[in-house]
């Protein structure tokens, strides 16, 4: 009888040990999945938003100018420059005679299937975003200065023709955020 009791005791111990091992394995698997999920989320947030800090050498487009990029030969990339609050005004004068936050140029032209490297030079002391949901673009340009703007790149290859709204989603100049050609504008994509 005592051997039967000890066998039952061992079986219960073995079942408990097996359950504990199973719980540990499920816990470990859950932890691995959670870490992988966090890694994917962090990558998704930071992908495409790399900024390189250095002083810009060159010119900025004149306020109000529009960049019309020519179609590129196959396998080449068209360079497009955007400046946020470029010197000497640190913005663009509006119809109200006030200087407002602005992306210069405010409107862009592109061609379906052509790849564009849009370089954003932020001369402003605060961050701004450049978002065009219909073109799958969402990028933040970190704050910069007149003498050392932040530089952010985003690559765009439009897939369909049309006129698409872009905008800054980070709160800044209320007038400029509501006025096309300042903190909002259009990308016109031709077939």
How many structural domains in the coordinates?
1
Mean pLDDT: 77
CATH class: Mainly Beta
Q: Output the CATH topology.
A: Immunoglobulin-like
Percent helix? 25-40%
Shape: elongated
Low-pLDDT stretches are: 39-74
Question: How many DSSP E strands?
Answer: 13
Give the termini separation: 89 Å
CATH architecture: Sandwich
Q: How large is the share of residues in beta strands?
A: 25-35%
Tally of helical runs: 2
Please sum up the structure shown.
This protein has 191 residues and is α/β, with parallel strands linked by helices. It has helices spanning 2-46, 174-177, and strands spanning 51-53, 67-68, 77-84, 92-93, 99-100, 103-104, 108-111, 115-122, 128-132, 137-141, 150-156, 162-167, 184-190.
What are the SSEs and their pairings?
Elements: H1 2-46, E1 51-53, E2 67-68, E3 77-84, E4 92-93, E5 99-100, E6 103-104, E7 108-111, E8 115-122, E9 128-132, E10 137-141, E11 150-156, E12 162-167, H2 174-177, E13 184-190
Parallel strand pairs: 2-7, 3-8, 7-13
Antiparallel strand pairs: 1-11, 3-6, 4-5, 8-11, 9-10, 12-13
């Amino acid at each position: 009888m005592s051997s039967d009791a000890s066998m039952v005791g061992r079986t219960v111990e073995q079942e408990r040990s097996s359950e504990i091992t199973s719980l540990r394995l499920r816990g470990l698997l859950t932890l691995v999945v959670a870490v992988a999920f966090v890694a994917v989320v962090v990558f998704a947030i930071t992908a495409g938003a790399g900024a390189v800090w250095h002083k810009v050498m060159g010119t900025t487009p004149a306020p109000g100018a529009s960049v019309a990029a020519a179609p590129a030969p196959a396998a080449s990339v068209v360079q497009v420059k955007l400046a946020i609050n470029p010197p000497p005004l640190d913005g663009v004068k509006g119809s109200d005679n006030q200087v407002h936050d602005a992306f210069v140029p405010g409107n862009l032209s592109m061609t379906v299937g052509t790849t564009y490297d849009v370089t954003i030079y932020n001369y402003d002391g605060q961050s701004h975003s450049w978002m065009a949901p219909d073109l799958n673009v969402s990028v933040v340009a970190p704050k910069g200065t007149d003498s050392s703007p932040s530089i952010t790149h985003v690559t765009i290859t439009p897939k369909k023709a049309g006129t698409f709204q872009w905008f800054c989603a980070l709160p800044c100049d209320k007038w400029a955020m509501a006025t096309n050609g300042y903190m909002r504008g259009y990308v016109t994509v031709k077939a």
